[in-house]
Amino acid sequence: MIKARKMTPSSPEPTPRPNATDWAMVERDLDARGCAVLTQLLSPDDCRALAALYPDDSRFRSRVVMARHGFGRGEYRYFSYPLPDPIARLRPQLYAHLVAIANRWNATMGIDVRYPAEHDDFLARCHQAGQTRPTPLLLQYVEGDYNCLHQDLYGEHVFPLQVAILLSEPGRDFEGGEFVLTEQRPRMQSRAEVVPLRQGDAVVFAVHNRPVQGTRGSYRVNMRHGVSRLRAGRRHTLGVIFHDAK
After folding, report:
1. Are 149 and 182 in contact (CB under 8 A)?
2. Which region, left, alpha or beta, applies to residue 52 given φ > 0 means left and ψ of -120 to 50 means alpha?
3. How much is the pTM?
4. Phi then psi for 69, rounded to 5 degrees?
5. pLDDT tens column, 89-124
6. How far apart are CA 1 and CA 146, in angstroms?
7. Residue 150, helix vs strand vs coil
């Protein structure tokens, strides 16, 4: 098992609270819209402690400047293993609440893949296929930055749900920079969903496809996500992706 890396002693240890979430409502929202908000998953102190890690090179395996790759503007850093303790605890806790939804979605869409109950077992599956690089990431945006619509796939093994946690406070730390989700249904125009978040809130959303019930049964819709242009300030977000990358 990969061990967690603790926060620095001067920083308060974040205490994620996924068990306080109404997971039945989360499931209904995911089925209806492909996304659901988890309010106050992290406290303001937790958020500041995580955002403060961004300049620490020892915490990360790589840095991506979006403009160099046509991804938008802004940058993000992928954490290295071992993950900081709060992320290492939060990732399997959230997975445990989402795995039944993921398996039901795949069954509904006619996808044969099923996910094990424990996140460590799913990571072992990823690692056996060569997907060994950790994918949790910290994103940083400043004025004028944005993230183009995209999907975080990274390899053959993909968990169909992921989580983004806003670490900054809208209206105080930044303006603009809304989380945006789009849905493309067959033979229909795309539908956009703007998800309002406060500091410490998380959004759970579909990585790639999700099932939708139609008049003739279920069908798949294609999902993408991004971030609108930041008009002022600085915005940090924690991304929690459950599969690792090649």
Report:
1. yes
2. alpha
3. 0.91
4. -115, 5
5. 999 999 999 999 999 999 999 999 999 999 999 999
6. 36
7. strand
